[in-house]
Amino acid sequence: MTLRMMPGFGNDFETEALEGALPQGQNSPQRGAYGLYAEQLSGSPFTAPRGTNERSWLYRIRPSVKHTGRFRRIELPYFKTAPHVVEHGLALGQLRWDPVPIPDEPLTFLTGLRTMTTAGDVYTQVGMAAHVYLVTAPMEDEVFFNADGELMIVPQEGSLRIATELGVMEIGPCQIAVVPRGMKFKVAPVGGPSRGYVCENYGAKFTLPDRGPIGANCLANPRDFKTPVAAYEDRETPHRVVVKWCGTFQACEIGHSPLDVVAWHGNYAPYCYDLRTFSPVGAILFDHPDPSIFTVLTAPSGEAGTANIDFVIFPERWLVAEHSFRPPWYHMNIMSEFMGLIKGRYDAKEQGFVPGGMSLHNCMLPHGPDRSAFDKASHGELKAVKLTDTLAFMFETRFPQQLTMFAAREAPLQEDYAACWEGIEKHFDPGRRDWGE
Known about the structure:
Blueprint: E1 3-5, E2 13-16, E3 37-42, E4 55-60, E5 72-74, E6 95-97, E7 113-121, E8 126-135, E9 142-146, E10 150-164, E11 167-171, E12 175-179, E13 185-201, E14 225-228, E15 239-245, E16 248-254, E17 261-266, E18 271-274, E19 295-300, E20 307-314, E21 317-319, E22 336-344, E23 358-361, H1 371-379, E24 385-387, E25 390-397, E26 402-403, H2 405-410
Parallel strand pairs: 9-15
Antiparallel strand pairs: 1-14, 2-17, 3-4, 4-17, 5-16, 6-23, 7-8, 7-26, 8-13, 10-11, 10-12, 10-13, 12-18, 14-18, 15-16, 19-20, 20-25, 21-24, 22-23, 22-25
């Protein structure tokens, strides 16, 4: 596996597995080198503005019309799509789960996907779904493509090999991969079972957020995103192609591997990113900036500043602000936050929120530090402290996140999660303006 650095979101780049497979000066020559077919894969409307226009030219052994056949409906009962509102009987509230156990049975990326929440509407291409994946077996002679949205894959335990039409990526904990809408791929565990999270984005694709006054550097830098070099399969063996379309699953049988792209160029491609290269910014005197400073990628909506999805991380970092409450403060907001912990401890919830676990704080439901975190932050010595061995993330959306039956009935829900705030006491004393000093 070899990866190449992305020169920046929106820029074209090129790669070939055979020298001379890429035509020069035109995209669709009369006769392709090596007998290859030219095909364009478009991730945006043809007339989208230059900055958001996305397409790649693929030079492949067979065109995609030969990679599908007569479809038949199949069922993946744990893989759900918005709108998906069920009567699960669970009351409204803040929710938290322990890690979903990895079973001994063979599960592929498709059969091991468990949807936790859905939001928005796939038919109008807004919103998202949050999934957990449990992978114990490779996809053998089977490929998948998602016509409903792009997939962000976030490993928490174990590594994955993701073979796409445009090349191969390997990722493990503290890394992510994004597979664009409509791109065929297959997944295999590397060295043992793997568990992690998936964000399925129905809306505008993920891109880097604007930095505003931060300027040209810090947060996620384009140079750290990597795309695979071209790698192809020329295999004349039976394969199954599975597609997700408007929440339904269809499969067909073909007689060869569809991962047959020998060369490609363009800006519509899979990519991976090491979250440890994220460069955080924060307060260097007092107070607590909004968590939006930890945004890695954003999927914009039609309303400026209000995301369809924000992908936010809370990595290792220094806390240095003086005379300030340093953990995330108590708050309510219009966004709905699905959170996961990849490793270590989360500073606002040092107990109960464990690696592989999840929490959901829907829009306008209050949340914040538990009692022990509040006491520690309120009375601790205000010196420079580095948070180490920690990495949490958040899939945040403008839409309410609806629970699936799996999340409400089968996943290991912590029934006593709200008890973490029961110990918070009343400190108000009108005669003591200097409380806590």
